[in-house]
Each structure stands twice: as C-alpha cells, then as structure tokens.
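In the laboratory, one determines a bound structure by crystallizing the protein with its ligand and collecting diffraction data. In a computational setting the workflow is compressed into a single prediction: the sequence and the ligand go in, and a structural description comes out. We illustrate the idea with L-homoserine.
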Amino acid sequence: MIKIRVPATSANLGPGFDCLGLALNIWNEVSFESADKLSYQVTGEGAEKLNKGVKNLLTKAYSLVYDIYGKPMSGAEIVAHNEILMSSGLGSSAAAIVAGLFGANEMLGGQLGAEEILRLATNMEGHPDNVAPALLGGLVVSVMSEDQIITKRYEIPELALVIVKPMVDWPTKTARAVLPKFISRIDATHNIGRAVLVVDALRNGDLDLLNKVMDDRIHQPYRLKRIAGGLAAYKTAKRFGAVALSGAGPSIISFASTENAYQAKIEIAAVFEERGIKTKSIITKPSASGVHRVS
Ligand code: HSE
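The predicted complex, in structure-token form:
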C-alpha cells in the first residue's frame, strides 16, 4: 500500500491566465492498495458526490498509467480524505488527476518522470496552470509549446492567503464559456507586464507591488460580473491588498497581510452572506511541496 498527498492550487493569480499557479497548504490524502477489483471511497470534501461510483478523474488517470506501462489494471482499493473544496477554483480536478497519475506510477515502480506526468496531466486538464504546481509545489509558470510544457518553479516566502468561496453553482465549463475568443492588443499588453511583475512580487513577498499589479483584463472582468456578489467581494478584498479570482472562480483569493487576514476573511465573506449566499472560508499559506508520498 502507498499513501500520497496532493495540494490545492490557485491558478491565474490575476493576469497570468492559464500560465501561473501556486500550490497551497490544503491537501487531499489518497492511499492505493492492490486489489481484485476497483473500489473508491472518499471522506471529507465532496464525499457525497464522489462516492457514487468508481468512474472519476482520479481513477481515469490511475488506469491511464497502467495502460502506458502495458499492464492490465485488474483492481485497486483507493481511499481518499479530501480537504480541497470542489468546484471552487482551488484545483480539485487537477489534484485528482495528479493523484491518480502519481499514485499509479508509484505503485508500478516510478518509471515515469515528472515531465511525463505533467504532460499526461495537462492533456487531461487542458491547461497546465493547476497541474504544474500540484506536481511541483511552489509558484509555477507554465507554457505549452508544440511538443512540450515548459515550466519554471519558484519558491515563495510564507504569506497569509485568504480564500473565500461563495456557495454558488459555477462550473469551470461555464467560467470558460463566458470568456471572449479574442482580446485587444491593449488588454494583452495590460496583462503581459503585470504577469511578470506578479511573479516578481510573489517571489519577494512584496505585497505592495502585488497590490499594484494583480489586475487582469483577460478573464476576471467577464467572470466576476457573472458570479453573484463577485464584483462587490472583489472590491472589499481590494481594501486589504492584492486580490484575484482563484482559478476560474468562484473563490476569491486575497493576499492581505498576516495581521489583516482574519478581518479580510470576515469582510469578504460578509459581502456574499449579506446577499444570502453561504460561504466557506480558509486562511492558508503557499506550499513549497507538490504531490509526494507519505508512506
Ligand atoms: N486557468 C483556468 C481558467 C483555471 O481560468 O479557466 C481553471 O481551470
């Protein structure tokens, strides 16, 4: 039997649409054991939804690695305890994919390298910005070229990260469908320089710079206005410093100072609650580690 942990991730980080992602100190723990048939049991976040059957992203990724090794996957007992909120913009699907690929690779002797796992994970997810930090930890810039995914990983200092999820229905499919197919040169220019500066600000823990540059014109304006309370919550979070929609949303991620983090959490959540929208909130920090074995 092996046991692994895989982190939540926050993608985009404002202007870095589909390119930037940060691993968070929120974990799903999954154990894998050889068995005659496939079983999958979950406790924690999403248990009700995930315990309905054995067909899901994690088991699909797990089987894929057995196919690649050319070994029939006769069965496995997979048990997960999930802390990553689902449908939140915290990379729960990326975590499931990475857990399945990494878990199967470990069960089979670990012949696939991180680059191959990243390629498989990106194929399944469609973009690398969540799967790359879920694998590598830290802050990761990733770009897709024709035949490979180019990544650069950075360590970042400890920061307080305030995450507030409004309990609204906001599937990633919808969040991508609301985006325009084309953007103007002005908007592209707006984002390019800021994305570079977001990386610099995070690497140096420079919250003042982050606050000045964590702004986006490619996805947030189109998404925030469609999420009930989204724009108002964003504005409230902005009073505490840098803020972004986490991934495709609906969670808001605020980079308030450590001293203000608790107050930021209360005030951002209140914006949704005042509108009758329940919330789940977490104060966390970045994780330097990505997926890894615990036993
Ligand atoms: N970069 C992706 C998006 C993350 O914003 O749609 C969510 O999968």
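Residues 19 and 46 are 27 Å apart (CA to CA). Keep in mind that any predicted model is a hypothesis to be tested, not a measurement.
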